[in-house]
Amino acid sequence: MTESSTVRFHAGDRVRVRTAYSIGHVRTPYYVRGKSGVIERVCGSFPNPEELAYARAGLPPLPLYRVRFLQRELWTDYAGHPADTLEAEIYQHWLQAEDAPR
Amino acid sequence: MSGNHDQDDTLTYYQAMESAVRELLIEKGVLTAGDVRRQVEAMDARGPQDGATLVARAWVDTAFKQRMLKDGSAAARELGLEIGPLKLIVVENTAEVHNVIVCTLCSCYPRMLLGLPPDWYKSRSYRSRAVREPRAVLAEFGTVIPADCQVRVHDSTADMRYLVLPRRPAGTERLSEAELAMLVTRDNMIGVSLVEI
After folding, report:
1. Separation CA A37–CA A39 (nearest Å)
2. What's the pLDDT at B59?
3. What pTM was estimated for this model as a whole?
4. Who's near A90: CB < 8 A, 6+ residues apart?
5. A99 CA to chain B: closest CA distance, Å?
6. Inside any domain, residue A67
7. Quick check: B154 and A54 in contact, CB under 8 A?
8. A48 at B interface, C-beta within 8 A
């Protein structure tokens, strides 16, 4: 997966978080991996924390997104309201278009 | 209670590392013990007042509220608040959506606006349950969200920090901006409680 610094997604785009289990410092929680959501906003670009954690520069900066998920898609036994949502910040290299092949 | 309860606990790995690095920095003249103490004192002195200032202004000034929802950091700076490099997103509670903040990966928190996070915010229990059963967690704080109101959890997973703009309670029409700010608590701005009068 190339780590492009060009913004690929925009508010409203449907995306899927990659199902990957890389080692080291990662800021993509397990519970959103493989899950689909919608881009809520583009937060800007930031040095890659997976590199920063090991005292590397983390450059070029990566686009960071707020992704909105439906809770009932994150947790099969979710007991709250069906419209309840969760938002998390996900770096671009963890995202793919929802309709892209897995 | 054991016999030596006067004794501090054994240092953990990271506590020992912190002491070692701090002592080295002081020994090498990079900073002084006074610098460290002053910084700790400054962090300890911070409370939720600056966050409450933002909320009260947003309640009395709709144009400011719109700017704040668009760019939280710029709005805080507009009020002259010291926020350093903080990248702030403010999320608004309405009759349709109730917001609550958590950091599942560690304990990210808008310290510049709210001070140090409460211990429960850093607990494994809050961090794991707030994302999975937010309504049950909120109920344990005495906050029951109506079934027709969506609960939206914000997991602070990366570079942004979050502040909840709570709903202004009814019956506060005559209060001044300063009086309104005094109603707003830390927990209101994390989203685990509603503003009470």
Report:
1. 7
2. 98
3. 0.92
4. A17, A28, A32, A64, A65, A67, B157, B158
5. 25
6. yes
7. no
8. no
User: For residues A26 and A20, what is the distance between their CA atoms, to the nearest angstrom?
Assistant: 11
Q: What is the pLDDT along chain A (102 residues), one digit of tens a residue?
A: 456 789 999 999 999 999 999 889 999 999 999 999 999 999 999 999 999 999 999 999 999 999 999 999 999 999 899 999 999 999 999 999 999 887
For B32, counting Cβ atoms within 10 Å of its Cβ (0-12 exposed, 13-18 middle, 19+ buried), the class is exposed
User: Strand A85-91 relative to strand B150-155: parallel, antiparallel, unpaired?
Assistant: parallel
Domain that holds residue A27: 14-97
State residue B1's pLDDT score.
Answer: 47
Is B153 within 8 Å of chain A by CB? yes
In a domain? residue A63: yes
Contact B54, B68 (CB under 8 A): yes
Tell me if A8 sits within 8 A of A92, measured CB to CB. Answer: yes
Q: A86: distance to nearest CA of chain B, Å? A: 5
Q: What is the CATH number of the domain that holds A74?
A: 2.30.30.50
Residues of chain B where predicted confidence (pLDDT) is lower than 50: 1
CB < 8 Å to B135, chain A: 79-81, 84
Tokens of B106: 């560690």
What is the total count of domains within chain A?
Answer: 1
Whole-number Å distance between alpha carbons of B102 and B181 = 23
Q: Which domains does chain B have, with CATH numbers?
A: 13-45 (no CATH), 49-190 (3.90.330.10)
Question: Closest residue of A to B155, CA-based?
Answer: A88
